[in-house]
Amino acid sequence: AHISAPRPPLALGDRTIRFDAPQVMAILNVTPDSFSDGGKHIGDPQAAADTGFAMAAAGAALVDVGGESTRPRAARLWEGDEIARIVPVIERLAAAGVPVSVDTRKAAVMEAALAAGAKIVNDVSALRHDPRSMEVVAAAGCPVILMHAPSAGDDPHDNPAGYADVVSDVFDMLEERVEACVAAGIGRERIMVDPGLGFGKGLADNLALVNGLAAFQGLGVPLLFAGSRKRLIGALSNEAPVSERLGGSIALAFRAAQQGAQMVRVHDVKESVQALHLWRGLADAGLSA
Ligand SMILES: Nc1nc2ncc(COP(=O)(O)O)nc2c(=O)[nH]1
Question: Ligand 1 test: best mutation among 101, 103, 148, 206, most atoms within 8 Å of CB?
Fold first, then answer.
């Protein structure tokens, strides 16, 4: 069945993102070592911005610019270096009117990115890594994406305890983070959540999360789903390398849309947009899943 829980549009400064159809967030990593596209955009902000323009032209509602790889055991990154990597790219995209989210855990990077024109903060630590990040987001008045990761420390994947029940454990943590944000003055209408596929989660955990995505609509805020090119695709398809996971990425985006995800975070925009158009057509026709 199609579970679509349209949410009020997300206000992005002078524009809004409407969720009556699932939206696409494009991934633009400006890092040397991101797991799937590291090294592609570092060192040439114009080339990186050009990629972002192409992503927006291909239908992305948002371009997610990240300067720090969040893969397991990634090298720690000084905030000054992270800012130097992403601000020149964000400035170019924002100047051209492309809505940008900044993928960072550091308060100083959030401040610099917002000043450069970013409209949303995307924090894989759900505003837990940097003690100042909650107040920066509250003061900025911008939307924020709270992602589940088991650790707020340097390596977000650290997860010695494992999960009793991964869907409810992730749900409970996200619920706690949403309430913490609301208590800090970040209104629910500015919050999105994300189950953090692959962050301190094994194959069984990831599969349970994909199958249980609809549960997260219970949090009453839009859901972002990010499965693009992630390891569970390789695990289920003869260990396909990162560069050969488009089919699985599209399948995951479609499945997330079927379960009500309001936005999907992808590397391959054109193909994902086409898949979501299919979902939209099927849902409008009222066909069963
Ligand atoms: N909200 C959100 N942000 C993220 N940032 C980085 C990565 C991992 O690296 P990638 O940028 O190459 O996907 N995954 C997520 C995710 O699952 N959700």
Answer: 103
For 117-174, how does the pLDDT look when each residue is reduced to its tens digit (9 = 90+)?
999 999 999 999 999 999 999 999 999 999 999 999 989 998 888 899 999 999 999 9
- Return the exposure string of 95-122: e unless at least 16 CB atoms fall within 10 Å of the residue's CB, then b: eeebbbbbbbbbbbbbbbbbebbbbbbb
**Residues with catalytic function:** 230, 265
226 lines ligand 1 (CB under 6 A): yes
The distance between the two most distant Cα atoms of the chain, rounded to a whole number of Å, is 51
Nearest 5°: the CA angle 219, 222, 226 is 105
2 contacts 258 by C-beta, under 8 angstroms: yes
Ligand 1 proximity of 268 Cβ (cutoff 6 Å) = no
Atom 4, ligand 1: residue with shortest CA distance: 124
Pair of tokens at residue 117? 């024109």
